[in-house]
Structure formats: C-alpha cells, structure tokens
Amino acid sequence: MTQADWIAVDWGTSHLRAWAMGPGGAVLGKAESADGMGGLRPAEFEPALLRLVESWLGTGTTPVIACGMVGAKQGWAEAPYRPVPCKPGAATPIAPNVTDPRIALHILPGISQDSPADVMRGEETQVAGILYETPQFVGIACLPGTHTKWVHVSAEEIVSFRTAMTGELFGLLSDHSVLRHSVGGDDLDGDAFDVGVDESLSRPERLAQALFTIRAEGLLHGQTAAAARGRLSGLLIGAELAATRPYWLGQQVLIGGAPALAALYARALQTQGVRCVTRDATALTLAGLALTHAKLTEVS
Length: 300
Hints:
The protein has helices at 45-53, 123-133, 166-176, 190-202, 207-221, 225-243, 245-248, 259-270, 281-299, and strands at 6-11, 16-21, 27-33, 62-68, 82-83, 103-107, 111-113, 118-120, 139-143, 148-154, 157-164, 253-257, 276-280. It is an alpha/beta fold and 300 residues long.
C-alpha cells in the first residue's frame, strides 16, 4: 500500500486522473478512470474519487488538490473563473464540503477572458507549472489537446489567450465524417502532414475544399491511410496556425502536451522558423498543483 502526503487530481470531461504525491513532489503512484465530469451526477463525484484513491489514504486527513472540469457548473462544486490578466499560480482554491473525513478537497478556479470571449479550466494549472519551473518565462504557451490553448504569458501573468477546437474537429472528422473511410489506423505520414500544414497556412480559406480531396485522393490515386491521416492533421493544425499567427510569429513558444501531439505542433511551427521547446503536459500539471499545495501548506 502507498500512503500519499497529498493527492493531485486532473479531472476532465471524460477522464479522471490522480497521483499519490510524496515528499519533494515525488510521484508515489498514479491511477485513472473513465469517471469524467460529463458522466457524473453531483452526488457521484466523491465516490468516484474515493474508488480511485482510497488505497492511498491513511488514518488522518489527506489534502486533495484538483483542477479541471471538476470546478465547472456541472462539476463537483463551481470554482468561479478569474478574469485575465491574472497570475495562474496565485489562485485561492475553493474547499467544498466532503462526507469522508479522510480527504480535504481543494478545487482550483479556471480563467476567463471577456473579449474575445474565452475560458479555460485545467490549462491555467499547466501555465502555473511553467512559471513554477521557469519564473522568468515570457512568451507563448501552446497547450494542444481537444481544445488547444494559446496563452500569452508576461510578468508571471496570463495576459490573454485563445482557444482552437482543432483536436475535437480532428476526432469528429476522422470518426464521424466521410473521411473515416480514408484515415483509419494510428500511423501518420510526416511528409503528408507537412504538405497539409503548408497548404492551410497559405490558403486557410480553402480548408473545407481541401478536406474533401483527402477522400478523393484515396479513391482515385490510392492514397494510404497514413498519408490521409497526416494530411488531415496538417490541414487542421495549419489552419489553426494561420488563425493564431499573432500569438506565435516572432515569439518564444513553449508547447506543453502529450509527447506525440506536442511534437506535431513543434514540427509545424519550426517550418515557420519559430523557436519552440516541448514539455509533457502531465509534468506541467503536477508542477502547477504542487505550487498550490506548497502555498496551502505555508498558510496552515
């Protein structure tokens, strides 16, 4: 059995992930389930968490620091958004009531932007992790995922941000459109990806037409599934880069995401001469949650 000093939680719409944390930020254990916010009623959140972390609890009270959709209106308890500009690591979490005395829950709030309207929950903790590790960071944090965030960071604050639904569009097109017949499998052709990026960056207004040629190329010219998948990814990421050009042009960019996806964004940006480094999203999330735990420990 592993007994945690505290527990880190990233609770999204479709998945729940937790880590048993030890002295000095050591990860003693990790667990995940499909008990995402989207499938739970209010009374089901605490049992879902306990099923995952109960083996890490001792006889006393263990702090649980959580970020993500667990703090949404439909979540365990609403943690109101903080407007930009704001310091992502300075938020005071809410502490909703729990029935099990072995846990003390703390939920971090998300961040909002009034114009253009935008919101984030969870990614702000990754930005806090960036600043925890590199306090002097000034530039753009690109956080790719289902909904990719482009975040302008300056003076240890989130100044502004924009969201692109690129990951969700890729999922919808590859699973529920006519393109599902062309992009099967997990292989992705890098050269086809590069062609797609260049095509969309050059003429983003042609995206809808370019997407259908993926299907036609397979029917008429035998395009492989790996090439089709690469071009689809390239077209969508290229269109995203065209829309977010003010965020990355001439900027230092830190990409925080799952390694394979972060590598694709880095590949696309480097073709445009952008200096970028990549970081694993999980490591950034844990660093951001550790910052909150350290501040709560100082207060107590």
